[in-house]
Write a structure and sequence with these properties.
CATH class of chain A: Alpha Beta
Shape of chain A: globular
Structural class of chain A: alpha/beta
Largest sheet of chain A: 8 strands, parallel
Radius of gyration of chain A: 20 Å
Number of domains of chain A: 1
Oligomer: homodimer
Helix content of chain A: 40-55%
């Protein structure tokens, strides 16, 4: 279980194709995981996710702990059974969400006390509590409880890193289930020495996978990519690397170029609810009046359900009329877009032409 | 085209099985049409409607005229193409919606002037305009522009009936397309003499189908059923009869008993959005705390997608968290419930045991 096999390596970059084995199936990497915060990828059914080719979804510990409660989910057979998804699931640790509640949480050496965004009630997460919740939820991959610090404050990041490392050891000590892989989260802000120290600390613990955290939280794109370049040679080749909370199509391609195997992001589902669709080289927003009479599909040559059946004009009408079907059709297209991109990435890696593909792909984004 | 074949007649009631032929396919009757007000049956895709066995859907002239506009839909290939539904469609005349805008419309002999509920702008519907819009939309079955009067005011209903009849003649004169069946709408409130006079006037025009309008608008259930009983022997056997805006499972069974062939109603989709599901003999609302840990499907022995995959506890969680999937799963179940009921009705009619079935079915509703 949790074996990671490397199948192909791009000769010119850090990109590689792999297969990560989990109790609920195999995850071909590089992989993009759609986010199902509240035990549902918004607007999609589990059968949609299978049809779209999703092989991993993410769900949020903080949200499920608050509602409907992790013990309820455990009593009902665990998250897979509860939400009717029989493929691999990854849960985050709740750390990132709790730290995002900047006005209503307090960090100490032992954990974090916070107020629920739902009703203001007080709660406390510790490494042990996060693991207990994630064991109740029963995902295939669970995450260590860490602190995600502001990336540019060296002294704070260094102090926070010690806490994150001690919490990781407590997570490992608290873990009881053998059918879940615990990934740690490399922190260290934008600082090469701290990132490298964090990675080396974690590598010594010989974990089944390593996440890269604390990015896409306010640093520049150049700082994010530089951090990936620092970690690429440090992290072990034979373990999956997971860039949390990323991303956009262009960031995913840039991440794979730098050796990243796993991604998750709310972007495709969130922009769908705002009326936007990914297209080659960018996005369109269907609220725009220019689409009023547009008979074309969202994107030329896209073979998703939405693009095979509906015009931009129809989807614009649904967006304007605030129809649920607008969310559904745009979400199908956007998730398809990213999962299809992962397929192109894996194909070009196995064909030995991923670097070319990436250069070409990223140049389209620079132009628009 | 628009042939109506009677296939079986229940020996003890007015119930019959039929087949109504339209340019977009055959409609087995009795049929229930889900409502797609704004060119979408809320929360469902056309592929869902096919999988659920829908053979007719209704869309609203008033709404589509205002947004996105009937001329736009015509330019984009008509309503079937626009919404990606290749089965039969029925459009109402806009009359009922316009008359429902009680504070912002004015009736005269020629038509109705009204204000849009979207932006307060002024518009005018006449019989000719309603037909022109419906020809632009291109449904298989279109409805005459009529007035739906308050059902208990004899003098007003009588005066209104003259208007409805003269408008029907104008609709027939205005109609140019031969690939659309124009149904008239029998009015007359709760008054037997007016209902019969209205039916006879319309029968003389030899239309392809007759709707029964002005019911489910404030009269009692007994008055509604009595009106159906007045019309059952008057309306021709060889034409479909359509009870507009009905209904609930029990009203559908009661209607079929009295010779009705076609129904439409927003009920299954609307109660889904309120968190409710049809079950045998009644409804449940998933907001109710009693379902918090309920592992059962919405309804025992239901084979819809929702009931095959999800518990009441999960759907309650989705309702509570205001997730789009709640609307989707409840809508699938509720539309399945009514379409499955129509299948049971047709089966028991063809088996010669519909009256027994209806008595049994309605007794379940009386008990709860």
């Amino acid at each position: 279980m949790f074996e990671f096999e490397i199948e192909a390596v791009d000769p010119e970059s850090g990109a590689r194709n792999g297969r990560f084995h989990t109790p609920h199936g195999l995850i071909p990497t590089p992989v993009f995981a759609p986010v199902g915060t509240a035990a549902t990828v918004k607007a999609l059914r589990p059968s949609d996710l299978h049809e779209l080719g999703a092989t991993l979804i993410l769900s949020n510990t903080y949200h499920l702990y608050l509602r409907p409660g992790d013990e309820l989910i455990r009593d009902l057979g665990g998250l897979h059974t509860f939400m009717g998804w029989d493929g691999p699931i990854l849960t985050d640790s709740g750390g990132f969400q709790v730290f995002s509640l900047s006005d209503s949480r307090k960090i100490d050496a032992q954990g974090v006390t916070f107020q629920s965004h739902l009703d203001g009630s007080y709660h406390r997460f510790t490494p042990e509590k996060s693991i207990a919740i994630q064991e109740n939820l029963g995902a295939d991959i669970i995450m260590a409880f860490d602190e995600c610090p502001p990336p540019h404050d060296y002294d704070y990041v260094k102090e926070s890193l010690a806490r994150t490392h001690s919490w990781l050891e407590r997570c490992l000590a608290a873990k009881t289930r053998t059918d879940q892989a615990l990934f740690s989260i490399v922190q260290g802000g934008i600082f090469a020495d701290l990132r490298e120290a964090s990675a080396r600390f974690m590598i010594d613990l010989d974990l089944p996978g390593y996440a890269i955290g604390g990015l896409a939280v306010g640093e520049t794109k150049a700082e994010m990519l530089a951090t990936l370049e620092i970690l690429e040679p440090v992290l072990p080749q034979d373990k999956p690397r997971y860039l949390m909370g990323v991303g956009s199509p262009e960031d995913v391609v840039s991440g794979v170029l730098r050796g990243v195997d796993m991604f998750d992001c709310v972007l495709p589902t969130r922009i769908a609810r705002n009326g936007s669709a990914f297209i080659a080289g960018g996005r369109i927003n269907l609220r725009n009046a220019q689409f009023k009479q547009d008979r074309n599909p969202l994107m030329a040559d896209c073979n998703c359900y939405t693009c095979r059946h509906f015009s931009r004009a129809y989807i614009r009408h649904l967006v304007t009329a605030k129809e649920i079907l607008a969310h559904i059709l745009l979400t199908i297209h956007n998730v398809h877009f990213l999962i299809d991109l992962m397929g192109q990435i894996r194909q070009t890696i196995s064909d030995g032409r991923f670097s070319q593909f990436a250069v070409q792909y990223l140049s389209n984004y620079a132009i628009t």
